[in-house]
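To whoever picks this up:

The parser on our side crashed when reading a file containing two proteins. I've narrowed it down to the boundary between the first structure block and the second sequence. Both blocks are reproduced below exactly, byte for byte. First block:
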Amino acid sequence: MPQETKTKKLIESIGEIQSDINLFVGKNARNDHNNYNYFTESDLYQTLKPQLRKQGITYTIQAVGEPSFTETQSSKGGKLTNYYSKGLLTLYKGSEKLELGIILSAQNSDIAKAICSALTYGARYWLCKTFGIATDELDPDSTEISKENSNQVIKETTSATKLEPVIIKKQSEDFYYQFKERFLK
């Protein structure tokens, strides 16, 4: 008699990715204007998509509710549009879905570029946080790029402990319900 394979639930698959992934997303692109390194969508997807495919997970990201637009002046005297919105990252596996509330925010002289930047930035960073994928340097808030915060030091000094999917499921459920109560009413 053939052995039955148990199909994992969405939250169990997320837990598998979080606990098994031993990958970093390198910040291979450079913003010389603001003096920081960052990772591109392509960098992230090279790391994450094989894991999503293996677990049968897909996702969507969208802005929800009324966005906020404000205008400010750039340091060179030009007009900048600040875009802010609540967002929704939805993960799917079969008939299951998990909705995660996120914040979308960006600034650009072109309103369309501000919106697209917010969606792109939101997707990159929230996917990394959801699946526990580390980046190899601190976020762009810091212009200091040193060995202390580099990928090599992280790899040399840390060892990941595999969490049980039950723990991850409980943490995810708690976060989801708290976020939903606070922001999605």
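<<boundary where parser fails>>
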Amino acid sequence: MGVKLFERQGRRVRLSEPGAYLLPLAKDLLRRSNRLEEMMHSLRGEVVGHLVVGCSTTTGKYLLPPLMARFIEWHPGVQATVRVGSRNRVLELLSSQKVNLAFASALIPRRGIRYHRFIDDEVVLIAPSDHPWIERDAIQPDELLGERFILREPGSGTHQAIERALARDDISVDELHAVMTLGNSEAIALAVEQGIGVGFVPKLAASRCIRLGNIAIVPIANMHMSYTIWMAENTMQPATAAHLHFIKLMKAEGFLQEEDGNMEQITAR
């Protein structure tokens, strides 16, 4: 190319300035080459290549690994990867075509991104197994105001579901006595298990601790909390056979429910 791509510093070799400019372009060419190879296999009816899924939700972290394990068992020619990150991060990866699909708990408008309803996730109140609420059939919403809470960060799908449910009883999340804010639901379940307080988590995230008998679900009278997990696709990214067959598997497993023959979908512009 007429320029030095590497330079030596003592015993170390590093990219030169031209090399640093070239590296992202080279990575993009490699990704496009791999995509082209996968598409050629797809045209021959072969399910091979690399399926990369971005995930930002607690429930997705629990549901996707067994789904993907089943998928590669059926299609051993596919290498599957789950990339976990914030909601914005996984959607950025989808927009830049670095993942095939993304799962998120909110509809964020992005050019060319189409959302499909994946599943509605239940949010429950959990307490330590020796908490007085455990013995009761249900508590009243106003009793929440006298308890210590471990909460998710504002903006998370769980936090938004709590806000909506409490608002129906004229209660603000800010009125709860929050002693701790944590960035994931598994950490909240563990903190509740230690007796630090009570908390709201997706039901699936608390399942292990519930099975062990260390925490339990506390029903709240006339209150139901849930939020939707969305599967997102990039309409400007050609779908590979692996991508399409994974969607087929999810539908066969009861996700991506269809109405009138079509998946419920929203295209964000």
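After patching the parser it read the second block fine. The CA atoms of residues 126 and 217 lie 5 Å apart. The chain is about 35% helix and 30% strand.
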